[in-house]
From TrEMBL:
Superkingdom in the source lineage: Eukaryota
InterPro entries linked to this entry: Kinase-like_dom_sf, Prot_kinase_dom, Ser/Thr_kinase_AS
Pfam families the record matches: Pkinase
Disordered: region residues: 53-76
Domain Protein kinase: 97-402
Record-listed E.C. numbers: 2.7.11.1
Entry's Gene Ontology molecular function annotations: ATP binding; protein serine/threonine kinase activity
Protein name: non-specific serine/threonine protein kinase
SUPFAM superfamilies: Protein kinase-like (PK-like) (SSF56112)
Catalytic activity line of the entry: L-threonyl-[protein] + ATP = O-phospho-L-threonyl-[protein] + ADP + H(+); L-seryl-[protein] + ATP = O-phospho-L-seryl-[protein] + ADP + H(+)
Family, similarity comment: Belongs to the protein kinase superfamily. AGC Ser/Thr protein kinase family.
């Protein structure tokens, strides 16, 4: 009866056609599945169309259109707003979309590249979840992901453009990342390894994304290269939030004591302020914002086995520290092409995580000493001594591995030039690569030097 109703409405409303999909089992594209993940079958019948007859969101209380402030002027949002303005009820429905191709499958559903029917320049990803195929536990994960996606507002995290309920399907319209994921990109590199400056770039952006999640009380628990997607502009976007859990977080403002910072102003012959000198023995207090869910606690064993923290494996309970452990594993894998505790089987890998220490090769190229030191501090088995567990990303940002990065300008850094990464040209100004001095600083210094020469010539001519 339900199928007949859907079919009759599909002719009227020209709903989303999924007839090219089949009822075959599709495993996740990742070579390393999460412990809670298994082969997923999305049974779209060959003659069935999804109808948007029901758009109720009472189960998750997520609005149909979910505008985000930092992306409000984005061209993709403009396309969504144009479609909703033409809609009779001011909502976005599945019949406003047209599928281009199947992108991949995950823990909960399939992802399709799609476009709005009246706009070919805007690409989106449509995540389709068949609720009839999920257990009650996974249905809760769908609700968790919907709730988290609706709360995110960050350049390195997905934008939920629309949330739609159709029959027994739940659909999320989010950003499409044309460069795939970091794991696939890593496989295109020589020896499956990124140059250290590229690792610094990707790690810095992942760090900022995790910092934001922790600041709103979300523990991610599924960090791995497969879940780090790369946008068309070369910047990252974390994905898959079904394994997250929420906790209370109390933001605070700490005073960091900095020594030897008392400054004395020198003036040049033109009366302009010049360089500063420092006096020894003086200190200065600099306020630092810290928002880390240090009281987070869970006993659920979820995640990808090569990225599990020791406390998660033992089952004694875990908190925010599991994300900082996974962050250390991620940096290691990007540098060496493999995870640090990988064994011949899943059991041996888990045993290595709880008992072995991290080992490195003898490579001593520029920056490797700092990278190894950071990894060692992140892969401390006791979460109480692990870097980041007490004060989060605030402490990790100060590590020498990230020295020189201007964190407020992190979105403006130019992506690394690596094999397989196609970066769409942007009209936005960049400030160089994370491994080098920002270009705007060089231009500013050259400009000031040129102005000084002009002033000197002008003063000499008057004499």
């Amino acid at each position: 009866m339900e199928d007949d109703h859907c079919n009759s409405l599909s002719h009227q409303d020209s709903d989303l056609d999924l007839s090219f999909t089949s009822s075959t089992s599709i495993a996740t594209t990742s070579a390393r599945s999460s412990l809670t993940r298994s082969s997923l079958c999305l049974s779209f019948n060959d003659s069935t169309r999804i109808s948007s007859v029901s758009t109720t969101t009472s189960s998750t209380q997520i609005p149909n259109i979910n505008p985000r402030p930092h992306r409000n002027s984005d061209s993709d949002w403009s396309a969504v707003r144009a479609a909703t303005n033409l809609s009779s009820d001011g909502r976005l429905h599945l019949h406003h979309l047209k599928l281009v191709r199947h992108v991949g499958s995950g823990n909960l559903g399939r992802v399709f590249l799609c476009r709005l029917r009246d706009s070919d320049h805007a690409n989106f990803a449509l995540k389709v979840v068949d609720n009839n195929l999920l257990t009650s536990k996974k249905l809760l994960q769908v609700q968790t992901e919907a709730r988290i996606l609706s709360s995110l507002d960050h350049p390195f995290l997905p934008t939920l453009y629309a949330h739609m309920e159709a029959s027994h399907y739940t659909c999320f319209l989010i950003d499409y990342c044309s460069n795939g994921d970091l794991h696939s990109l890593m496989k295109k590199q020589p020896n499956y390894r990124f140059p250290i400056d590229s690792v610094r770039f990707f790690a810095a952006e992942v760090l900022v994304a995790i910092e934001y999640l922790h600041s709103i009380g979300i523990v991610y628990r599924d960090l791995k290269p497969e879940n780090v997607l790369i946008r068309s502009d070369g910047h990252i976007m974390l994905s898959d939030f079904d394994l997250c859990f929420s906790a209370d977080v109390v933001p605070k403002l700490d005073n960091r004591i900095i020594r030897n910072v008392t400054r004395k102003t020198h003036r040049n012959r033109f009366g302009l302020s010049g360089r500063y000198s420092r006096r020894r023995g003086e200190t200065e207090r600099m306020p630092e914002f810290v928002a880390e869910p240090t009281t987070a606690f869970s006993r659920a064993c979820v995640g990808t086995h090569e990225y599990l923290a020791p406390e998660l494996i033992t089952g004694d309970g875990h908190g925010n520290g599991v994300d900082w452990w996974a962050f250390g594993v991620l940096i290691y894998e990007l540098l060496y092409g493999t995870t640090p505790f990988r064994g011949s089987s899943k059991e041996s890998t888990l045993r290595n995580i709880t008992s072995e220490t991290v080992r490195f090769d003898d490579e001593n190229t520029r920056g490797m000493a700092e990278a190894k030191d950071l990894i060692e501090k992140l892969l401390v088995k006791d979460p109480l001594g692990r870097l980041g567990c007490a004060r989060g990303a605030t402490d990790i940002k100060r590590h020498p591995f990230f020295a020189g990065i201007k964190w407020p300008l992190i979105r403006m850094y130019r992506p690394p030039e690596v094999r397989g990464l196609t970066v769409k040209k942007s009209s936005k100004a960049h400030v160089g690569h994370v491994g080098g001095w920002p270009l705007y600083q060089k231009k500013r210094r050259s400009l000031l030097k040129g102005l000084s020469c002009i002033l000197l010539k002008y003063k000499g001519a008057k004499r």
